[in-house]
Structures are given as C-alpha cells and as structure tokens.
Amino acid sequence: MGDRIRILIVDDHSLIREGLRAVLETQPDMELVGEAHDGREGVARAGALKPDVVLMDMILPLMDGVEATRQIVQNDPGVRVLVLSNYMEDDKVLGVLKAGAKGYLLKDTAPHELRQAVRDVYRGKSALDPTIQRKLVDQMTHPHEKPGRLAEELTHREREVLRLMTEGLTNQQIAARLSLAEGTARFHVSNVLRKLGFPNRTQAVLYALQNGLVTPD
C-alpha cells in the first residue's frame, strides 16, 4: 500500500504516544512506523525510518522540538514535520516554523482535525491551529524583520501566487486557479521563495503575512 502515509511520533509522554497511536492506526491511509521519546532519538529514527510525516512535541529531553525539527528537515527536506504541543510561546512557535515545520497544532485538537492535518502536510499544505494562526497574524503589526531584499521586486503574478500560497494551495492547485501550466506555477513559486529569501513555503507565507505583503482573507 504505497499510498499510506508513514508517520513517526516524537513525544516523551507514553500516554500521549499511545493516544496518538489509537487515533492514527485506524486510518487505512496511515501507517505508524515508529516512536521516539526524546529529540535526539527522533532525529535518529527519522533518518532510519524515512517517514513521510513526523508528529513532533516541542518540550523534549536531550534536544527540543525546534532543534530536532531543524535537523530532521536538513537531513531530509522531504519529511513533513507537524508540531503537536501545548506550548504557545511566540519565540518557540516562530522558531519551529522557521526551522521547517509545516504545521502547528495544540494537543487538544480533535482527532478528526489531527488526521486531516496529517493529510494536509503530507500533500504539501500547511496546518496551523486557529489560535496559533491568530497569534502569527497579530504579529503583523510588530514584524521582527524587514522585508526580504528583493520583496519589492515581486511581479503582479508573483504576488498572486504568493496570495494563493497563503491559502495553502499546492503548485497544481495554483496552476488551476490561475490557468497556468503546473511547471509555470512552480517557476513562480521558486521566484517568490528566492526573492523573499526563504527555503520553503511555510516560512515565506508566515513572513508575507507578518509584513503585509499579502492581505489574509
């Protein structure tokens, strides 16, 4: 069943891991391939097991979720990290998203929402808890950084593409929305990332929202 989403759980609480296992193992399109109880083990197991999605806690022994996420994504950019935590401090939330996480959910997320978020990040979309999303949008009025060096050079088409990126659309969906070839949409996305100076879509979208490059719906 090559279409099953291979999932690794990284959490230091056995009860949480057991609960996540129960939520995920019933799904015909999901397969739990491993678990880790600290950040260092999570990095090692991600390298060995090659999961599609890693469910990552933030507060972990030996290595926190931010550093574990950074190392996992550096080692294999194809791995999608979805944070599942009760920790909502701004610096940690932004830190783990900038480290390459594709989503951030709180641990009181409903099981069906968690399962959908796993599917979304697997397909290249972002998944943010509404509480986290509001916090990030609120920070637009207090941006940490100045716009990217080439942000002012975004073309009208690239700004359209960036707006659709903030909606979580894939390259294929952007192409369909703008009546473009998928390769053309991919080219525009690459240009947006290059001009904003970010290695992935999640970071570029957060930066665009924080700095008012697009207006959130």
Structural features, described:
The chain is of the alpha/beta class and 217 residues long. It is 50% helix and 13% strand. The chain has helices at residues 14-25, 39-49, 65-75, 90-98, 111-122, 130-138, 156-166, 171-178, 182-196, 201-210, and strands at 5-10, 30-36, 53-56, 80-85, 103-106, 127-128. A six-stranded parallel beta sheet has the order 2-1-3-4-5-6, sandwiched between helices. It starts with a strand and ends in a 7-residue tail after the last helix.
List the helices and strands and how they pair.
Elements (H helix, E strand, L loop, with lengths): L4 E6 L3 H12 L4 E7 L2 H11 L3 E4 L8 H11 L4 E6 L4 H9 L4 E4 L4 H12 L4 E2 L1 H9 L17 H11 L4 H8 L3 H15 L4 H10 L7
Parallel strand pairs: 1-2, 1-3, 3-4, 4-5, 5-6
Would you identify the CATH architecture of the largest domain?
A: 3-Layer(aba) Sandwich
Indicate the percent of residues in helices.
40-55%
Alpha-carbon distance between the two ends: 38 Å
Parts with pLDDT < 50 across at least 5 consecutive residues: none
Structural class: alpha/beta
* Count of DSSP H/I helices: 10
Question: Order of strands across the biggest sheet?
Answer: 2-1-3-4-5-6
Overall pLDDT level: 86
Order of helices and strands: EHEHEHEHEHEHHHHH
Number of strands: 6
Give a quick account of the main beta sheet: strands, pairing sense, barrel closure: 6 strands, parallel
CATH superfamily of the largest domain: Response regulator
CATH class of the largest domain reads Alpha Beta
| Structural domains: how many | 2
